[in-house]
Write a structure and sequence with these properties.
five-stranded mixed β-sheet, tRNA N6-adenosine threonylcarbamoyltransferase, Nucleotidyltransferase, domain 5, single chain, 10 helices, globular, 2 domains, binds 5'-O-[(R)-(carboxyoxy)(hydroxy)phosphoryl]adenosine, about 40% helix, about 350 residues, tRNA processing, binds zinc ion, acyltransferase, alpha/beta, iron ion binding
């Protein structure tokens, strides 16, 4: 049994978890700062790092207590070193290194995006080759994994990330940040009355683009404003969400047709979207050789348990870091290819 304690602080959640063998979550303590950032409509980096400093020891103690695990029962310390906000990443990294030094444990460097994908193992064991749709606030990628812990980005967004487009539309409609969940709920109450463009539907690749859709939504709202017309926000939410989901489904379908994979993983904050989950479930009915493994909803947003899951992949391959490990705010998958 391998017990890994993991630290995540790349954006606005401070989190520490203890995970056994990469898939059994013994504890996952998360402190969120959403309330502090809501009035600014986004994360304020300075505020975020100060919150992390305030919370990290409390979250660490809570994770140890909840799991009922003593430091001497642990095998390693996993930590997110990128991508993310440098000031936020630094707090988790310092916490993890200090804990590792104090208890004489090895440090495992973890890519936050690998963490999102590895959280699929909390649903069921991933079989390879696998394809992952990674949709978060900062990233939208189709990632091919020919084997465990190996990542090939076959498609990505050329502009906004899927989650970012939800948040920007939310801002336009004066919804609280982050707006993904609220728009998801509003979309259920509305009708698809507005025809927005589905980005790049005809292009011969696996890339995404959401900026055209965002502009179309902005134009629609401004036109209505100018004419003094009241817009139906629920209808707008439905129409917008349809366009995002269509784009994600279209590219995914193409990738599934061209790469025959045993598992299809849906990961990242936007993986909580109910319409996306439903439509992917239907799509996967046509691919009988492929099991659909969406990350369980409670692990779709940023959390340390997912870092423990990806940390275990590295642990098995003996990928450890020295105590001079630094943050890498722009880290992507390219650097992880083995
Ligand atoms: O992965 P995550 O927690 O943080 C990043 O690493 O970016 O993703 C956060 C993003 C936000 O943009 C949020 O609006 C979006 O996930 N999100 C959703 C839903 N829940 C969260 N988007 C659409 N539908 C949802 N239900
Ligand atoms: Zn994330």
């Amino acid at each position: 049994m391998t017990k890994i304690i993991s630290f995540e602080s790349s954006a606005d959640e401070t989190s520490v978890a203890i995970v056994e063998d990469g898939h059994v979550v013994l504890s996952n303590s998360v402190a969120t700062q959403i309330n502090s950032h809501q009035r600014f409509g986004g994360i304020v980096p300075e505020v975020a790092s100060r919150h992390h400093i305030e919370w990290i020891t409390r979250v660490l103690n809570d994770a140890l207590k909840t799991a009922d695990v003593k430091p001497n029962e642990l095998d390693a310390v996993a930590v997110t070193y990128g991508p993310g906000l440098v000031g936020s990443l630094l707090v988790g990294l310092m916490g993890a290194k200090t804990f590792a030094l104090a208890h004489n444990l090895p440090v495992i460097p973890v890519n936050h995006l690998a963490g999102h994908i590895a959280a699929a193992n909390f649903n069921q064991s991933v079989q390879y080759p696998a394809l992952a749709l990674m949709v978060s606030g900062g990233h939208t990628e189709l990632v091919l994994m020919r084997k465990e812990n190996q990542f090939e980005v076959i498609g990505e967004t050329r502009d906004d990330a899927a989650g970012e487009s939800f948040d920007k539309v939310g801002r336009l409609l004066n919804l609280p940040y982050p707006a993904g969940k609220t728009i998801d709920e509003m979309a259920h109450r509305g009708q698809a009355t507005i025809k927005f463009p589905t980005a790049m539907a005809h292009e011969d690749n696996y890339d995404f683009s959401f900026s055209g859709l965002k502009s179309a939504v902005i134009n629609y709202v401004h036109h209505a404003d100018q004419k003094g017309e009241q817009i139906n926000q629920n209808d707008l939410a439905t129409s917008f969400q349809n366009a995002v989901v269509d784009a994600l489904i279209g590219r995914t379908k193409r990738a599934l047709e061209n790469f025959s994979v045993k598992s299809f993983i849906l990961a990242g904050g936007v993986a909580a979207n109910s319409q996306l989950r439903e439509e992917l479930t239907i799509l996967l009915n046509d691919f009988s050789e492929t099991i659909f493994i969406p990350v369980p909803i409670r692990y779709t947003g940023d959390n340390a348990a997912m870092i423990g899951a990806a940390g275990y992949w590295n642990y098995k391959q003996k990928i450890f870091a020295d105590l001079d490990l630094n943050t890498d705010p722009g880290l992507d998958f390219d650097l992880l290819q083995l």
